Amino acid sequence: MTDRAGTFDGVHRRNLSKVLGHVHLEGPLSRARLTAMTGLNRSTVASLVAELNAQGLTIEQAPDPTNRVGRPSPVVAPDPRVLAIAVNPEVDAITIAAVGIDGGIRARERIEVDHLPTPAETAELVASAHDRWRTGPLRDARIVGVGLAVPGLVRASDGLVRFAPHLLWSDVPIRAIVETATGLPTAVGNDASLGAVAEHLFGAGRGVDDMVYLNGGASGIGGGLIVHGVPVGGSAGYAGEFGQNRPGIDPAGDRRATGGVLEDEVSRARLLEVVGLDHGDEPALAAALAAADSPAVTDEVERQLRILATALCNAVNVLNPSLVVLGGFLATLAERDLGALERAVAEQAMPAASEGLSIRVAALGENRLLIGAAEIAFADLLADPLGR
C-alpha cells in the first residue's frame, strides 16, 4: 500500500478528520470556532465543511440569533443520521442501540434472556434489530458499523474474545460472526474499557487526563484506565480487570466467598438477592435499594462499600488518578453516600496519592457502554472521513 501521509491527499484527509472529530466530541460549533480550534484559515475550513456536508457527515445550521457581535458564522454539527449499532451482551440480557455520531440514541432495546446467550444468538439478535430498525426509526440513516462491548478479555489485535467467563465464551471470533450476520463492519472491545472511553470523552471524566473507571454489571466488575489522556489497554488489550483482584477484607466477617475475588464479594447478584429480585436492569435495582428499609439490605450495602473502598484504595496507590468513576451497580452503591466512600478510600490510601482525589458516578448512565461501543464503530470514519 502506498503511504500517502505526507502527500496533499494525506494532509487533506487529516484536516477533514480534525473538523469531523471536533464536532463529534464538542457538538455544534461555528465555523469561526472551528477555525480557531484547527489552526486552519477560514477558507480552508469552509471548504472542508462543504466537503463533509456533501459526504453526509455534517450539517450546517443557522447561527445563534442571540450572538449579535460581528458577522454571524454558520454552525456546523454532526449529521444525526450517521449511526452505529452498539451492542452489550450480558448474562441476563442483550442490549442493542443505534447511537448517532452526534451522541443521540435513536433506538434502544434490552432483550432479556433466561439462559446464557451464545455468540450466534447474539449476532442473530443484532441482525434482527438492525433489519427491523432499517424499515422503521432508522430508515433515513447511514449505518457505518457495529460496536460490541463484551464483558471479558478481548484481544486488541483482532477482537477475538479470549475469555468471557460469565458468558462462557472462549476464543470466540465474535467480530466475524456479527459481520457475517449483519453485513456491517464490526469492532469489539471490553465493556468496561469502552465505558471508560465514553465517560472520558463525554461523561464524568471529560477533560480529566488520569482516571480509573470501574463498571459493575451482571457479569461482575471490570475496569478501564485513562493515563495522560490516553486509554491504556496493556500489551494485548486485557488491562483493567479490577474485578479479578483479591482485596484484603477486614473484618473477616465481611467475607462471603472463601478465596473469592472482588467481584465475588461486591456483587450485583448479591444485591438483587437481598432486595428479593430475580433479575432487573440498573434502574430497577436502584429503585429497589432506595425503597428497602430492611436491616439486611443496609448491612449488605455497607459490607460491599467497605470492600469496594479497599479495592479503590489499591487502585489509587498504584495509579495515582485524579478521578475515579463508578458505573452500573457500583454507582448505585456509591450514591448512598459518595462523601463517605471518598473518605474511606482516603483513610486507607497513601496520603500523597489520594490528594485531590475525586470519586464520581458515571454521567452517561445506562448508555455508557453503548456509547463506548459506538465509539469504536465510528473510529475508522473519524480517522478518515473519505474512507480508504
TrEMBL record:
Gene3D superfamilies with a match to the protein in the record: 3.30.420.40, Winged helix-like DNA-binding domain superfamily/Winged helix DNA-binding domain (1.10.10.10)
Family: Belongs to the ROK (NagC/XylR) family.
InterPro entries xref list: ATPase_NBD, ROK, WH-like_DNA-bd_sf, WH_DNA-bd_sf
SUPFAM superfamilies: Actin-like ATPase domain, Winged helix' DNA-binding domain
Protein name from the UniProt record: ROK family transcriptional regulator
